[in-house]
């Protein structure tokens, strides 16, 4: 039996940071995002021997674990092994993983891979998990089981796909799909430039700093988070109305608010790239993810988009083509020996459900 999964990466336009504890529980968060045609991939095939073999192209790791060690979530490939532990998978399998964007890219690649792994085990073991359950389980594995710092938006973006306004509170998460006219989506693509800054950076230190600034009530930290929430709702309004120039200018306002929320999110090198883009005709932009590196998104006058792209490349960036996609995580069987997947055992089902 062979199972394959692909989960789309996302572009977060505004609201990142408001989905991070403790702001989320105390004030509620909101994020505007969309999935793109860049993916995290996972494959699983059965093997006659016990234990699990995992190959990850992104981390250049090829590891084998016996049944007595695969559920230990310390060391390499801890995220993958934490998913296996939740599902109590003790059969002999080979798992192969790769992604279209490296970890630390700002496109949500780590959380998207976690969703891909949850979907992979769900498909293989024959569990019914809805999109909300998959997203929440992936969040729990990352943030609670492993203690990885971060927000809550990426798991939901990967599970649901498309353009969404996602609302977060202590009680629940609500995904609101946006009904955009097709021409608005195509026109938005026509105005956007996605540029790799040439560097990646783990987000954990940046998120720790953001949370500490919030807890210490440092000047501007709370106000900036409130402003990002307000701008997120304005951006949503601009999108559904097809007012794209207004959307581009709001991106610039959000860029400034993010710097106020966390000054370390936009280092000098990225600030310089952003200045180059603005001077060449970009109306606004966004450093994706927690910041510090990864991808920079720019909204441009379509007549100047080629000038912005050329200037970014000359300044050391790398412009990358992309398109928006309207689907979330997808899974399929490549081959079935018995015609249908095996049922999941009650023990594994008990472990896999979100708490």
From TrEMBL:
Keywords: ATP-binding, Kinase, Nucleotide-binding, Transferase. One of its GO terms (molecular function) is kinase activity. Belongs to the GHMP kinase family. Residues 235-315 form the GHMP kinase C-terminal domain. InterPro entries: GHMP_Kinase-Related, GHMP_kinase_C_dom, GHMP_kinase_C_sf, GHMP_kinase_N_dom, HddA/FKP, Heptose_7-P_kinase, Ribosomal_Su5_D2-typ_SF. This is GHMP kinase. The keyword Kinase applies. Gene3D superfamilies: 3.30.230.120. Residues 80-162 form the GHMP kinase N-terminal domain. It holds the Pfam family GHMP_kinases_C.
């Amino acid at each position: 039996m062979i199972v394959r999964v692909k989960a789309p990466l996302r572009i977060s336009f505004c609201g990142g940071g408001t989905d991070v504890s403790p702001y989320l529980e105390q004030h509620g968060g909101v994020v505007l995002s969309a999935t793109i045609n860049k993916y995290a991939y996972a494959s699983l095939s059965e093997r006659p021997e016990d234990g699990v073999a995992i190959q990850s192209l992104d981390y250049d790791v090829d590891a084998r674990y016996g049944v007595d060690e695969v559920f230990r979530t310390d060391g390499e490939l801890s995220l993958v092994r934490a998913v296996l532990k939740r599902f109590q998978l003790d059969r002999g399998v080979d798992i192969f993983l790769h992604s279209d964007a490296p970890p630390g890219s700002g496109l949500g690649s780590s959380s998207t891979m976690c969703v891909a792994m949850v979907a992979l085990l769900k498909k293989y073991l024959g569990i019914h998990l809805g999109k909300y359950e998959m997203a929440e389980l992936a969040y729990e594995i990352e943030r609670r089981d492993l203690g990885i710092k971060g927000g809550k938006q990426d798991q939901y973006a990967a599970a649901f796909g498309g353009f969404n306004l996602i609302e977060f509170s202590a009680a629940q998460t609500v995904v609101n799909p946006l009904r955009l006219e097709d021409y608005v989506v195509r026109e938005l693509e026509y105005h956007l430039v996605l540029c790799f800054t040439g560097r990646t950076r783990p987000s954990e230190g940046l998120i720790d700093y953001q949370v500490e600034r919030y807890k210490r009530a440092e000047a501007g930290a709370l106000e900036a988070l409130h402003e990002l929430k307000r701008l997120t709702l304005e951006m949503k309004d601009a999108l559904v109305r097809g007012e794209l120039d207004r959307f581009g200018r709001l991106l610039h306002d959000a860029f400034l608010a993010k710097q106020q929320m966390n000054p370390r999110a936009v280092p000098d090198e990225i600030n310089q790239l952003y200045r180059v883009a603005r001077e060449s005709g970009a109306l606004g932009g966004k450093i994706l993810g927690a910041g510090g590196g990864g991808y920079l998104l720019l909204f441009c006058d379509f007549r100047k988009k080629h000038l912005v792209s050329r200037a970014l490349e000359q300044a050391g960036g790398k412009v990358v083509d992309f398109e928006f996609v309207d689907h979330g995580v997808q899974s399929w069987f490549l081959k079935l020996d018995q015609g249908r997947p095996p049922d999941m055992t009650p023990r594994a089902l008990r472990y896999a459900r979100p708490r």
